[in-house]
């Protein structure tokens, strides 16, 4: 690639984008679907301890699929999308056409990683906003862009979102949130998923992870950030983070790395 990409992590409520070298990871699975592209030499991946390593330029990992990626020192682009989200539904048809039947191989012309790396490098130098980085990735990878989100026209949904964000460490039950906006639990659950594309409980997890990132970016220790965000302890945070991203939060949230974390509001 033309220039070295700096580390960057952008986290939306329902998706994430990572640019940088791959942290060491063992076999793991997470609920978010994942597209991983090496911006340098090909990477290796496998789906079990007994399966052989495959060498590819990109992989598409379905939700909850066991996998391990070995990219050595190569710079990577990794896109995560929650499968309950509207964005995943919009992308899944394009992704399914690109993923080889029975595996995770994501077919990609050899010229694409270099072009993608150069385009992202230019955008980062120009201070592009996260949505611009995301849309550039979709375009370069030949994936259909999702439709414009419906948004949060319903004030009751917005109220629930504001409550969750205002007190990330609080244990929110659907029944309690429903009482706050004078709805039945089933009605609130339906409205929330319609407007956000994700169930309430899953949104709470994302909100807590976002809080951890904001706290660590401000210099808070991971242990303290875990408690502020509502995790029982640092080990609980680490398990949740690994389930979502495949590696421990301590790998990313050093004092040097935290400055490159961007939280994107809906």
Secondary-structure class? alpha+beta
CATH class of the largest domain: Mainly Beta
CATH architectural category of the largest domain: Sandwich
Whole-number mean pLDDT: 83
Task: Please give the domain count.
Answer: 2
Instruction: State Rg.
Output: 19 Å
Helices and strands, in order, run as EEEEEEEEHHHHHHHHHE
CATH-defined topology of the largest domain: Jelly Rolls
Major β-sheet annotation: 6 strands, mixed
List segments where confidence is low: pLDDT < 50 over at least 5 consecutive residues.
1-5
* Overall number of strands: 9
The dominant shape is: globular
CATH superfamily name of the largest domain?
Jelly Rolls
Helical percentage: 40-55%
In short:
With 266 residues, the protein is of the alpha+beta class. The protein has nine helices and nine strands.
What does the model show?
The protein is of the alpha+beta class and 266 residues long. The protein has 2 domains: 8-141, Sandwich (Jelly Rolls); 155-245, Homeodomain-like (Arc Repressor Mutant, subunit A), CATH 1.10.10.60. It is 41% helix and 15% strand. It is built from 9 helices and 9 strands. The chain has helices at residues 86-98, 111-125, 130-141, 155-166, 174-180, 185-196, 200-217, 222-228, 234-245, and strands spanning 8-11, 15-21, 33-38, 43-46, 54-56, 58-61, 68-70, 75-81, 261-263. The protein has a 6-stranded mixed beta sheet with strand order 6-3-8-2-1-9, with helices on both faces. Strands 5-4-7 form a 3-stranded antiparallel beta sheet, with no helix packed on it. Helix 5 crosses helix 6 (185-196). The radius of gyration is 19 Å and the shape is globular. Mean pLDDT is 83; it is low at 1-5.
């Amino acid at each position: 690639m033309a220039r070295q990409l700096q580390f960057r992590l952008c986290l939306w409520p329902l998706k994430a984008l990572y640019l940088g070298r791959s942290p060491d990871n063992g076999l793991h699975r997470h609920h978010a679907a994942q597209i991983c592209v090496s911006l340098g030499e090909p990477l290796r991946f496998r789906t079990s301890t007994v399966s052989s390593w495959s060498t590819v330029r990109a992989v598409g990992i379905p939700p909850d699929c066991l996998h391990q990626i070995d990219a050595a020192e190569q710079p990577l682009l990794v896109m995560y999308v929650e499968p309950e989200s509207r964005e995943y539904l919009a992308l899944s048809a394009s992704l399914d056409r690109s993923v080889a039947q029975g595996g995770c191989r994501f077919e990609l012309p050899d010229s694409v990683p270099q072009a993608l790396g150069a385009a992202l490098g230019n955008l980062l130098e120009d201070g592009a906003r996260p949505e611009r980085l995301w849309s550039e990735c979709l375009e370069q990878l030949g994936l259909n862009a999702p439709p414009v989100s419906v948004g949060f026209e319903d004030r009751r949904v917005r109220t629930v979102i504001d409550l969750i964000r205002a007190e990330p460490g609080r244990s929110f039950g659907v029944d309690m949130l429903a009482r706050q906006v004078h709805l039945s639990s089933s009605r609130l659950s339906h409205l929330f998923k319609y407007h956000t594309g994700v169930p309430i409980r899953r949104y709470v997890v994302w909100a807590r992870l976002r809080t951890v990132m904001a706290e660590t970016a401000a210099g808070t220790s991971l242990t303290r950030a875990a408690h502020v965000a509502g995790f029982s302890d640092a080990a609980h945070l680490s398990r949740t983070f690994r389930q979502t991203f495949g590696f421990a939060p301590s790998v990313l949230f050093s004092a040097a790395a935290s400055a490159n974390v961007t939280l994107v509001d809906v």
